[in-house]
Amino acid sequence: MTHPDVMRAGTFQLGDRTVNRLGYGAMQLAGPGVFGPPKDHDAAITVLREAVESGIDQIDTSDFYGPHVTNRLIREALHPYRGGLTIVTKVGARRGDDASWNPAQSPAELESAVHDNLRNLGLDVLDVVNFRAMGDPDGHGPAEGSIAPQFEALAKLREQGLIRHLGVSTITPAQLAEARGIAPVVCVQNLYNLAHREDEAMIDDLATDGIAYVPYFPLGGFSPLQSDSLSAVAQRLGVKPMQVALAWLLHRAPNILLIPGTSSVGHLRENIAAGGLKLPADALAELDGIGANAA
User: d(Cα 168, Cα 176) in Å, to the nearest integer?
Assistant: First the structure.
């Protein structure tokens, strides 16, 4: 049965699927630095199963998490998958033996990554595949440059029936336009949260076109969000700062889908509770000011 707070977060059309806006990101199930096995295998399985039992019906993953770790955990915990569950994965990188993040963006590498995801998830077709551009030197921000060869390679795999829908990640508006000229794009996954708002115009444009925007690091990622305003709002409302940060994203635009990650059942439940959190006007005004100050 879907948890009431998952329902309160609302739904959005992702390709041919109507999904709950509150999803789950599997990245943190891997070991430290998103490398190696989980510190607690049984806990990881429990988190995945509780997420789905709570009504979360979109899971974000990649075969380069671990590598292979999160996809194999998802398969172990959830296969055979219940109807309506949408698994979104991404390709475009590989992990080195030293846990480094390296580009893997040739057509052959992308095709190999798609087959890795299919095999490790136990699927015949992937629901959504995001092309992950490597972007700037730290890998978290976009950098200009054509992504046509990569997106054309994925579009061919879509035509072959291995992929239902395509998305893009860590891209610029120009790259988004280029991708949309090659094949339909159902979602964009970029860095965005209370303190990082470079994509404001893109989010609104995508909403107009009915395309999902999926912020990664919605809670700050490896450097959790820290803000006196965020803490003050949370204290007034009697909730956790991270719950306020998630609720703000849900309020920001109807096409934003959330994929907060955690390896803890307790944190999962806190994230779900954020779906039902209503922010009063004064809180929204104070939170909006965080981005203005960061800029």
Answer: 7
Residue 188's contacts (CB-CB under 8 Å, 6 or more residues apart) are: 167, 168, 169, 171, 176, 202, 206, 211, 212, 213, 214
Tell whether the model's pLDDT for residue 293 goes beyond 70: no
**d(C-alpha 260, C-alpha 186), whole Å:** 19
Average pLDDT of the segment spanning 114-133: 98
Asked if pLDDT for residue 295 goes beyond 60, the answer is no
Amino acid at 169: S
pTM of the model: 0.96
For residues 159, 24, 83, 13, the Cα torsion angle rounded to the nearest 10 degrees is: -60
Distance CA 264, CA 12 (A): 26
Which residue among the candidates 65, 192, 213, 216 is catalytic per the annotation? 65
Categorise residue 168: left if φ over 0, alpha if ψ from -120 to 50, beta otherwise. beta
Q: How many whole angstroms from its chain centre is CA 215?
A: 6
Q: Known catalytic residue: 192?
A: no
Structure tokens at 46: 């429990």
What lies within 8 Å, CB to CB, of 184 at 6+ separation is: 165, 166
Give helix then strand counts, H and E, for the chain.
11, 11
In this prediction, residue 292 has a pLDDT band, given cuts at 50, 70 and 90, of low
Question: Is the CB of residue 78 less than 8 Å from the CB of residue 48?
Answer: yes
The token duo for 45 is: 């399985």
| Under 8 Å between Cβ of 14 and 186 | yes
* Eight-state DSSP code of residue 32: G
CA distances from 194 to 72, 114, 284 (A): 32, 32, 11
Q: Is 87 exposed, middle or buried (0-12, 13-18, 19+ CB in 10 A)?
A: buried
DSSP 188: E
Quick check: 234 and 225 in contact, CB under 8 A?
A: no
Main-chain dihedrals φ then ψ at residue 20, nearest 5 degrees: -70, 140
